[in-house]
Design a protein that fits this description.
heterodimer; A: about 700 residues; alpha/beta; TIM Barrel; Rossmann fold; FAD/NAD(P)-binding domain; 3 domains; eight-stranded parallel barrel; five-stranded parallel beta sheet; 24 helices; globular; B: about 70 residues; mainly alpha; 3 helices
C-alpha cells in the first residue's frame, strides 16, 4: 500500500466502540437494512450490499436512513419483531468482518419530503389525506417544526408537529435503539441536524417559528435532537454510542436558493458562529460522534456534490467546528482519500465519510490496500442511478416509479443493489463479437463480453477510445469524467481486448463472415433544425469543447440554443473558467428540465448561471442565425443579439448503422438518447445474453 | 365440497406451474434463448415491465409481512 493512505487504516473510538479504520461509509438512501419506501422488513438486497462493503474493509458502515415511522404503512420501526430476529444472525455474520455497523434512524423529512404529483395532491387535500392515511399520511410525512413551504411541490405547506407527536417520536427512537442493540448493532446515528431534514428544520431559526419549548432559543431549537439522544441512552444504555449527522453550515440563501462555494452571502440557515455553539450543546447532550458536511435541500449540491463542486468542499468548515468539541468528527462531500489521510495524520480530522464511491466500485478499499488504486472505477457524481430525484419549475419530484423504489443503484456499475439482475455468467458458447464504436457503450459492451468469455473486437473510427464522451468530459470541471475514460482505456488494455483504431465500419455485411455477433454502439449526432434560418452556421459541442474553441479569444459572446444539461454546463464553464459571456435560450419553462437528472446537479447549474448573471431566456427560441448575430424570439417579442457564435444545444439524434437483424444488437445512444446509465445498463442487458 | 376441492387443486397446480415457469425463465440459458427468439427490443421491453411488476408485487407482500406479529 502507498504510505500516503496509511493514516486511513488506523483505528479510532466512538464512545467505547473501536472502529477498525477511519473509513466511514455514509448513509445513502436505498442502502437500507429495513427497506426504503416499503413497510419495514429485513431487506436482503441491502443486507447483501452492506456485508460486501464490510468485507471490502469499510471501518464503519452506516446503512441508508431509516425513518423511525414508516412513510408507507405508518408502522413504528420498533414494532416489527420478526425483523429484529433476522437481524441478529446477520449481525453475527457481519461482525466476522471486523467492521462496525451503526444504523441511521431518521426523524423524517418535513418540508424536504420529495413528494411526487400524487403525494402532493393528497397532501393539499385534507379529506383525501385522511382517507389515505392508514397507508400513507402525506401531511404527517411532511410535518415540520412550523408551517413552511415544501421544497418540491408548490403550494404544499408543512403542518407543525404537535408536542405529543414529537415526544411520541422521541420515545420510539429510544425503543428502536434498544431493539437494535439487543440484535447486536454497534450503535446508531441520528438523522439529522443536517441537510434540511426534519430535525434540521427544528434547529434553523428561519424554519422554526414555534413559541413552545421546541422553538426560540438555540437550546430550544435543538431540544428535539437532544431529547432523542437522551431517550436512547435511557432505553438502550448510556454506553450505546449515538452519532449525529450534522451540517456545519446550511449554505442557503433562502427557500430553494443555495449559495455557490465562492459566494459571499447572508446565511438563511445555520451559520458558522451558531454552529460553534450548537455542536457544544449536542456533545453535552450525549452525542458521541459528528458525521458532518454542509447544505440543505435548498442548497442540495453541498450535501450531494456534483462534479461542478470542488473536491473536499466541506472540509474547511468541518475542521473548524472540530476545534469546539472533544468527540470525533468525520467529514463527507467529495472527499479525496489522500487529502483525508493527510488531515487525519495531522490531527485535524478523525474520519473520512465516503458514500457514492462505494456504489461504483465495490473493491476500492482493497485496491488501495493492494496498491492498485489505478484500477478504481471513479464515481462521476452524476446521481443518475443512485439518487435521481429531479425537479424543474412547477413540477413535483419527477423521479420514475421504478427509481423511487430503488435508490442507490449505480449508473456505471449495474450489479450494485441489483446483484441478481446484473451478473457476469461465463458463457458456454464463446463467440467472436464485433463491437462497432469505441465510446462508453462500446467499451462497456466489450468488457462485459470479455468477462463472460467471448472474444470482442472494437472498431473505432477515430484514433482514440471515448466517443462522444470525450466531448462531454472536455469541460474544465469534469475531472472525474476524464478519469472514467482513462479507467475504461486501462480496463480494455488489462482485459486484452483488441481495438482496431481509425477503422470506420460502413457496412455490417463486411463483418458478418468473420464475426458471430455484432454490437452497434455508434452513438448519436447533433439534431438539425433546418426550419431555423442559418442553422447551418451553428457550432456543435465537439467544436466548442473538444476542439477547444472555448479558449478562442475571438469567441466572447456565445448563444446556446437549448437549455439542457450540456448547454448549461458549457455556459457555466465559459462564464466561470473563461470569463466569457454565454447566453442561454430555452424553449421550455426551465433549464435542465430532465426527469432523470438529480436536483442537486440541476439546481447547481440554475443557481450558478443566476449568480453569474448569465442571461437566460425561457419560453424562447432563435428564429434566425446570421454572421455575428442571431434573432431571439421571446414571449415579449423578437430582438437581435450580437454574438460570436450560436451553439447547437437542441439535443442529439440516434445514429445507428446497418439494419436490425438476427445477431445484430444495438447499445447506447444509437438506440435512444439517454445518459451514461441508459448506455451502460443496456450494454449489460444485451451482452449478458449473447 | 368436491367443486371447492377441485378449484383448490386447480389453483395449487396453476400456482406450481407458474412458479416452475418463473424459475425456468430465470435460467441463463433460457434467457439467452428468449433474447434470441424475441429480439433484443421486445425482450428488454418485456424484462423492464416484469421487473417493475415484481417490485410493485413485493410492496403489498412487505406490507403484510410488516403487519405480522
Amino acid at each position: 500500500m502507498n504510505p500516503k493512505y496509511e493514516a486511513l487504516f488506523t483505528p479510532f473510538k466512538i464512545g467505547e466502540v473501536e472502529i477498525p479504520n477511519r473509513i466511514v461509509q455514509c448513509s445513502m438512501g436505498g442502502t437500507t437494512l429495513f427497506g426504503w419506501l416499503e413497510p419495514s422488513h429485513f431487506d436482503l438486497e441491502g443486507a447483501d450490499f452492506l456485508l460486501k462493503r464490510a468485507k471490502d474493509g469499510v471501518g464503519l458502515v452506516l446503512p441508508g436512513m431509516q425513518v423511525i415511522r414508516d412513510t408507507m404503512g405508518r408502522k413504528w420501526l420498533d414494532s416489527n419483531r420478526q425483523m429484529y430476529r433476522v437481524l441478529k444472525p446477520y449481525m453475527d455474520e457481519y461482525h466476522k468482518t471486523g467492521s462496525k455497523l451503526f444504523i441511521q434512524l431518521a426523524g423524517g423529512f418535513g418540508r424536504s419530503m420529495a413528494v411526487t404529483p400524487w403525494m402532493a395532491a393528497l397532501g393539499k387535500n385534507d379529506l383525501l389525506n385522511k382517507l389515505a392515511s392508514p397507508i400513507v399520511d402525506v401531511q404527517y410525512a411532511c410535518a415540520s417544526a412550523s408551517a413552511t413551504p415544501n421544497r418540491w411541490a408548490d403550494g404544499l405547506i408543512s403542518r407543525p408537529f404537535t408536542i405529543e407527536e414529537i415526544q411520541e417520536m422521541v420515545w420510539h427512537f429510544g425503543a428502536t435503539a434498544r431493539k437494535l442493540r439487543e440484535a447486536g448493532v454497534d450503535g446508531v446515528e441520528i438523522h439529522a441536524v443536517h441537510e434540511g431534514y426534519n430535525l434540521d428544520q427544528f434547529a434553523i431559526a428561519n424554519m422554526n417559528f414555534r413559541t413552545d419549548q421546541y422553538g426560540g432559543s438555540l437550546e430550544n431549537r435543538l431540544r428535539f435532537a437532544t431529547e432523542i439522544v437522551q431517550s436512547i441512552h435511557e432505553q438502550a444504555g448510556d454506553d450505546f454510542p449515538v452519532s449525529l449527522r450534522y451540517s456545519v453550515r446550511s449554505c442557503t440563501k433562502g427557500w430553494r436558493k443555495g449559495a455557490m462555494p465562492y459566494e459571499e452571502f447572508e446565511e438563511f440557515g445555520r451559520d458558522l458562529a451558531e454552529s460553534e455553539k450548537a455542536v457544544k450543546i449536542l456533545q453535552d447532550a450525549g452525542y458521541a460522534f459528528l458525521n458532518c458536511d454542509n447544505g440543505t435541500y435548498d442548497a442540495w449540491y453541498w450535501a450531494h456534490p456534483p462534479q461542478y463542486m470542488p473536491d473536499n468542499c466541506n472540509l474547511e468548515d468541518v475542521e473548524h467546528i472540530r476545534k469546539f468539541i472533544d468527540i470525533p468528527v468525520a467529514c463527507a462531500g467529495r472527499m479525496d482519500p489522500v487529502k483525508a489521510a493527510e488531515e487525519i495524520a495531522a490531527g485535524r480530522l478523525d474520519a473520512v465519510a465516503i458514500a457514492r464511491q462505494n456504489l461504483v466500485d465495490e473493491h476500492w478499499i482493497t485496491k488501495i490496500k493492494e496498491g492498485r488504486e489505478d484500477e478504481i472505477r471513479p464515481c462521476i457524481r452524476c446521481h443518475n442511478g443512485c439518487f435521481n430525484f429531479s425537479k424543474a419549475a412547477g413540477t413535483e419530484n419527477m423521479q420514475s416509479l421504478g427509481d423511487s423504489l430503488h435508490l442507490a443503484r449505480c449508473a456505471l456499475n449495474p450489479p450494485t443493489m441489483q446483484h441478481n439482475r446484473y451478473k457476469i455468467v461465463p458463457t458456454k458458447r464463446p463467440k467472436r463479437v464485433a463491437v462497432i464504436g469505441g465510446g462508453v457503450g462500446g467499451m462497456e459492451s466489450a468488457l462485459v463480453l470479455r468477462k463472460r468469455g467471448h472474444e470482442p473486437v472494437i472498431f473505432e473510427k477515430d484514433g482514440e477510445l471515448g466517443g462522444l464522451f470525450l466531448t462531454a468530459s472536455a469541460m474544465t470541471f469534469k475531472e472525474n469524467d476524464k478519469d472514467l475514460i482513462r479507467w475504461y482505456r486501462d480496463e480494455i488494455r488489462r482485459y486484452n481486448i483488441e481495438v482496431r483504431f481509425n477503422t470506420e465500419v460502413k457496412d455490417l455485411a463486411d463483418l458478418r463472415s468473420s464475426f458471430d455477433e455484432i454490437v452497434v454502439c455508434t452513438g448519436s449526432v447533433p439534431r438539425n433544425m433546418p426550419q431555423i434560418k442559418g442553422f447551418e452556421k451553428t457550432m456543435d459541442f465537439t467544436e466548442l469543447l473538444r476542439d477547444r474553441r472555448i479558449e478562442d479569444e475571438k469567441l466572447q459572446t456565445v448563444v446556446f440554443l437549448g437549455g439542457g444539461q450540456s448547454s448549461c454546463e458549457a455556459a457555466y464553464d465559459m462564464v466561470y473558467n473563461f470569463k466569457k459571456n454565454p447566453i442561454v435560450v430555452e424553449y421550455g419553462n426551465d433549464l435542465v428540465a430532465a426527469q432523470a437528472t438529480c436536483l442537486a446537479n440541476t439546481s447547481f447549474l440554475r443557481d450558478a448561471l443566476e449568480y453569474h448573471k448569465v442571461p437566460v431566456y425561457l419560453h424562447s427560441t432563435i428564429t434566425e442565425i446570421g454572421d455575428g448575430y442571431c434573432i431571439i424570439k421571446t414571449p415579449d417579442g423578437e430582438f437581435r443579439q450580437e454574438c460570436d457564435a450560436v451553439v447547437n444545444g437542441v439535443g442529439f439524434v440516434p445514429a445507428p448503422i446497418g439494419d436490425k437483424g438476427p445477431h445484430i444488437h444495438r447499445v447506447g445512444d444509437c438506440v435512444a438518447i439517454g445518459n451514461l446509465r441508459t448506455v451502460v445498463w443496456r450494454a449489460w442487458d444485451v451482452c449478458m445474453r449473447i | 365440497m368436491k367443486k371447492a376441492i377441485r378449484k383448490l387443486l386447480f389453483l395449487v397446480c396453476f400456482g406450481a406451474f407458474a412458479w416452475l415457469l418463473a424459475k425456468l425463465a430465470q435460467r441463463d440459458e433460457v434467457q439467452e434463448k428468449l433474447f434470441e427468439i424475441l429480439g433484443e427490443d421486445t425482450y428488454l421491453a418485456i424484462l423492464d415491465k416484469v421487473r417493475l411488476g415484481g417490485d410493485l408485487l413485493m410492496w403489498p407482500v412487505d406490507f403484510v409481512r410488516a403487519l405480522l406479529p
